[in-house]
Design a protein that fits this description.
Length: 405
């Protein structure tokens, strides 16, 4: 197997459910913003995939070149062979449990971007694959995210405000700068507005070629922000989490209906996911493993989550890993969200929470702060107004940029 090259890449498999298509002219042109690209796609699954692949073709090809370099061919010899074989095998196990409309959309992305369908599939399953490959997940992905919600009683104007930092670390190829792969993630973000035919539209923060989501807001005023939790056991014969969250975006209209999708879904790994509903002024954190699920509700007008379980029924299902960073980030968010309970906060205040670099204890490392070297981006949502603010961390001091969903 040779490293990826767009010039020599075979076309994707025929688009699911039909014959090869002529790629239509994209209905919009991507906008280059400060630290990320923004695109809009609309229509059927195939139409959205074709527009996605055409608008972001160069970005998708470059991202896959980086994945091949750092991940699939990043380690030499038998180790590298084992990485490639394991990732492809676990991806194939998950594929039948991805809803067909998402597989059709990924096939269309691959077709228009002139890359293999298997590679787009791998990109979208990446986090769940690493979680299920336990040792490989430890080698490549060191994950630490932070999220919170402030209820209307705690904000000015009186509205739900949600915030999340996505933190990630990907091991670079042998011999490269250890931060090269992670820095690539920071430098190549994409915000995509999805307008699926017959379903609820939404805006997601992620990367070119990603059809699923881990950070998003829907036109039904729902927000999701997910965080991986290292658990004792995972289950590869299941739906990758990002597609469950996309279903929440497209199908749910209330907080309870969103939770129901996760309860009924076939789950692959441990996650904490913040769900906020602007129309209801409500939020919850769903803590789950493939076999268990519990819901936490806000207290004193706020709720927060990081990368460990807090619910009494879930806390014993952590994996045997250190949780200092997660616990300290959680406690710091509690300090921030709970301080000055008589003071109402706004979106600007929430942005300051996500940029906070305070360490709570003398023995804390820099990874114990809410904003830390692994933070890839921060996002604040005001779903009742359809507004979000995005801050990539590709350069120091980057400001949040306001967008409308």
């Amino acid at each position: 197997m040779e490293p990826f090259s767009a010039a020599s890449s075979p076309a994707a498999s025929p688009i699911v459910g039909g014959q090869d298509h002529v790629v239509p002219k994209a209905r919009s042109v991507p906008v280059r913003r400060e630290g990320f690209v923004q695109a809009r796609v609309e229509g059927t699954a195939s139409e959205m995939g074709l527009q996605h692949g055409e608008q972001l073709r160069a970005e998708i090809q470059e991202l896959l070149e980086a994945v091949y370099h750092h991940v699939l061919f990043g380690q030499p010899g038998i180790v590298g062979w084992g990485v490639r074989r394991s990732i492809r095998t676990v991806t194939r196990l998950m594929t039948p449990f991805i809803p067909s409309r998402f597989r059709q959309e990924m096939a269309a992305v691959a077709h228009a971007a002139n890359v293999p369908y298997a590679d787009i599939l791998m990109l979208n399953c990446f986090d769940d694959v690493l979680a299920n490959l336990r040792l490989l997940g430890t080698l490549f992905g060191r994950i630490g995210c932070s999220t919170f919600a402030l209820l209307p009683e705690r904000t000015h104007p009186s509205e739900l405000i949600c915030g999340r930092n996505l933190d990630y670390f990907v091991e670079s190829a042998a011999g490269d700068d250890p931060w090269a792969a992670t820095n690539y993630m920071k430098e190549h973000l994409a915000v995509i507005d999805f307008r699926p035919q017959g379903r609820t539209g939404f805006t997601t923060v992620g990367w070119p070629g990603f059809v699923g989501t881990v950070t998003a807001m829907s036109q039904c005023q729902l927000v999701v922000g997910s965080m991986t939790v290292a658990t004792n056991r995972n289950w590869a014969v299941a739906t990758p989490a990002c597609f469950l969250y996309r279903r929440v975006m497209e199908e749910a209209s209330t907080l309870d209906s969103a939770i129901d999708i996760l309860q009924r879904g076939r789950r692959s790994q441990g996650n904490n996911v913040l769900i906020g509903s602007g129309s209801e002024g409500a939020a919850a954190v769903v803590e789950y493993t493939p076999w268990r699920l519990a819901v936490r509700r806000p207290t004193e007008g706020w709720i927060a989550a990081t990368n460990h379980f807090v619910h009494p029924r879930m806390s014993r299902y952590h994996g045997p890993y250190a949780h200092q960073s997660s616990a300290e980030r959680f406690d710091r968010l509690a300090d921030l969200c709970g301080c000055e309970l008589d003071e109402r906060l706004d979106a600007s205040g929430a942005q300051q929470f996500l940029a906070d670099v305070t360490r709570r204890t003398p023995d804390s490392t820099e990874y114990c702060s809410v904003s830390n070297p692994c933070t890839v981006y921060g996002t604040v949502f005001a779903p009742a107004r359809g507004k979000l603010w995005v801050r990539p961390t590709d350069v120091p001091g980057r400001a949040f940029e306001e967008l409308e969903s």
